[in-house]
Amino acid sequence: MKSLPEKDPGSPDRRSPARYLLWLLRGQWRSAAGGAALGVLWMLSQALMPAAIGRAIDEGVTAKDEGALLAWAGVLLALGTVQAVTGVTRHRLAVFNWLSAAYRTVQVVTRQATRLGGTLPKRLSAGEVVSVGISDVAHIGDVLDIVARGTGAVVAIVAVAGILLATSPPLGLIVLVGVPVILAVAAPLLRPYREREQAHRELVGELNTHATDLVAGLRVLRGIGGERLFAGRYRAESRRVRDAGTAAAWAESRLSGAEVLLPGLLIAVVTWAGARLAADGQISVGQLVAFYGYAVFLIAPLKTLGEAAGKVTKGLVAAGRVVRMLEIDPELPAAGTARPAAPAELIDIASGLVVRPGRVTAVAAADPRDAQAIADRLGRYADGEVSLGGVPLHTVADVRTRILVAVNEDRLFTGPLAESLAPPGAGMAAGMADGRAADTGSPGRASLEAALRAANAEDIVASSGLDAHVAEAGREFSGGQQQRLRLARALAADPEILVLVEPTSAVDAHTEARIADRLAAARAGRTTVVCTTSPLMLDRAAHVAFVQDGLVVAEGTHRDLLETESRYAATVTRGETTTRA
């Protein structure tokens, strides 16, 4: 068999869930066509068995012709052999199709996740990504798996109807009319099943996200006594998922019941009509046995059609989630070539913010979303009219190197703490291989120590050591400790322009005051923008810009703005807005 996965999965069709599934089908059309052909032979070999049995009864048993009986027994043996061989081969191809579709989906999803980078957690929850990677790929694989048996079922039903119609037009008409009626009656059951399955999948994704957050913050929750509170919330959300799953199961059970009941009614009608015809002498005993065999056989292809409807429904829901992820575009690329001289003035034209080089500028926004939007534009994570040194930011080369935006959604990396915090190229890992700290005289170590002091994170390193192993996302640290370590990492990088978004929101007042006092010295000669409404941070800033409704409406020092701008005072002191005299 062909090795999996493919090196290049190709460019998926993300216009709709159905088009995505068709793209998968086209990409493996050879194996899908082979599986469908084998599925047809597999089903037809079973469909012809009742005819062979009927002929054996009429020509061998009733006519007492031993040779004819042996001949038809040989035909049955040949049909059984064909059924066995095609069944095994069809199953192998079906498994290959399932794996190929699933792996291909995993490849395009993983490639998209890598392409999105930091955009992914902003647009999709962790639980939804987990659901796509675990359950949705399985449902998509099921769609490609059912193609072979579904095709065989359709051909077998048509073949049986043709045989019945040729032998007895009334029986053939019953099958030809009955099958579309069954499909028409079962069709209305598909829509509620699809809707409830989709609702259930979305709730499962949300619950997975909350579970991930709970596990990541379990130490913190225990420390503040919030374990029971969040466990209660998780329990309530679990009940919602259970109720949604029950509703989906009810819809699926009605569909499964219809898969048994409706074909059963058709079989009963065919058997009753065949018995009447045999009693009237219009068909032989062998034909009656054959008709009964056809009726029993029809259960399998009709049930396969119902199974196909269910799997395609689930596959469309799963493909819809994959398509939504593939439709996300990464944050704006930094592909410019201009290189304005440093230090340079940074201007956000949309808000009117002017960031002078070499000083700490604070941005206090009445709505925190406005501050975040400004930070995104300054770092070119969102489109906007921003200039650096008089040059449009989208034309500037190495924007990510020159401008660093640090937000609280950033994560600590797994591995030695020194490697997670060290600036690129500082060589902090050189002395860590044997478990000993790096040379204290190295430039990388000195810059990191200065950054740790400015972020007031020295106590964290003193208790754990720079060679301590950081677990996933730094979950062994509290929220405040993680925030201080992230700030130290940003300061150690020493970018030309550093944009900090609420860098002290998770620390106590005493720690915040020390960070505020040390930040200006740590960033001396560099440009720093701090988006915050903390009075301690604002008081230490060289310049403060107050933003309301997305625009800078007042500027000055923190104390001047407190006296002259009532809206600013209300924002930073959490008081009520008053009108200036």
From TrEMBL:
Cellular compartment(s): Cell membrane
Q: Which superkingdom is the protein from?
A: Bacteria
- PROSITE patterns in alphabetical order: ABC_TM1F (PS50929), ABC_TRANSPORTER_1 (PS00211), ABC_TRANSPORTER_2 (PS50893)
What SUPFAM superfamilies does its record include? ABC transporter transmembrane region, P-loop containing nucleoside triphosphate hydrolases
Bilayer topology reads:
Multi-pass membrane protein
GO annotations of cellular component type: plasma membrane
For this protein, the parts annotated as crossing the membrane are 29-49, 69-88, 146-165, 171-190
Q: What InterPro entries does the annotation carry?
A: ABC1_TM_dom, ABC1_TM_sf, ABC_transporter-like_ATP-bd, ABC_transporter-like_CS, P-loop_NTPase, Type_1_exporter
* Domain ABC transporter intervals: 323-574
Pfam assignment, any one: ABC_tran
Q: Name one GO molecular function term.
A: ATP hydrolysis activity
Keywords in alphabetical order, please.
ATP-binding, Membrane, Nucleotide-binding, Transmembrane, Transmembrane helix
Its predominant location is membrane
> Where does the ABC transmembrane type-1 domain lie?
33-314
Concerning PANTHER family, the annotation shows: ATP-BINDING CASSETTE SUB-FAMILY B MEMBER 10, MITOCHONDRIAL, ATP-DEPENDENT PERMEASE MDL1, MITOCHONDRIAL
What protein does this entry describe? Answer: ABC transporter ATP-binding protein
